[in-house]
Design brief:
By secondary structure, the chain is an alpha+beta fold. It folds into two domains: about 60 residues, Protein of unknown function (DUF541), domain 1 (Translation Initiation Factor IF3, 2-Layer Sandwich); about 130 residues, Protein of unknown function (DUF541), domain 2 (Alpha-Beta Plaits), CATH 3.30.70.2970. The protein is about 35% helix and about 35% strand. It has five helices and nine strands. Strands 2, 3, 4, 5, 6 and 8 form a six-stranded antiparallel β-sheet that branches. Strands 1-9-7 form a three-stranded antiparallel β-sheet, covered by helices on one side. A hairpin with a 7-residue loop joins strand 3 and strand 4. Helix 2 runs antiparallel to helix 3. The longest helix is centred in the N-terminal third of the chain and has 31 residues.
Amino acid sequence: MTALMSRPSFPKAASIALVGALLTSAATALPAHADTADAAFRATTLNLSASGESKVTPDLATITLGVQTDGATAAGAMSANAVQMNKVIAALKKAGIAERDIQTSNLSVNPQYVYVENNPPKLSGYQANNQVTIQVRDLTRLGQTVDATVGAGATNVGGVSFGLQDPKAAEDAARMDAVKALQAKADLYARATGYKIVRLVSLGEGGGYTPSPPPMPMYAMAKREMADSSSPVSAGELKVRIDVSATYELAK
């Protein structure tokens, strides 16, 4: 004989009481959440941004230089390029540039054609290019270093860009300047509107140290033009900027 299981039964009054308790609980929880949302909505806030800047003398220079050679064959162009580039690298090391500060940035060989109207292009030879990017950490020797590479056979020298080996101190100085400007601006707005600052709600940062990009490449001067004097190089001054933004809560 199969046994039938039945659901436990509750008195009708108990069921009504349980439903009533649940509704009462939900009704009690809603106002607390609503009050929190209303309080946040009613808060008077001030959103501001400001920037700070520090000026510092650079202590690092980055230069791209290279060798360009031509040959009847690709192998011939590359072989001639390798010989000349080895002399340039040796000159860099002799000038005090460390191995870690010399990095190949481009190496290529391309066919060269002569174009005559109404005729197909005619192969005239090959051109090889080898470029290295170097970092000079002693700026007092920058001009001499460039001259040495040209004297050793570099056929083109890229523009110089200046930077910082360690930008942290300059960034921190810019941060302090930015926060002071932000606080002064917040105080001014609060006074102008008859409010007082209750607290800082949020603070964000943008910007930071960015080294100046190098200018367009320049062809190196001929050796005879370099013989009379060393190339003058002026490092100038770098600007490090930090942008900050903040939200303040105000009250009467």
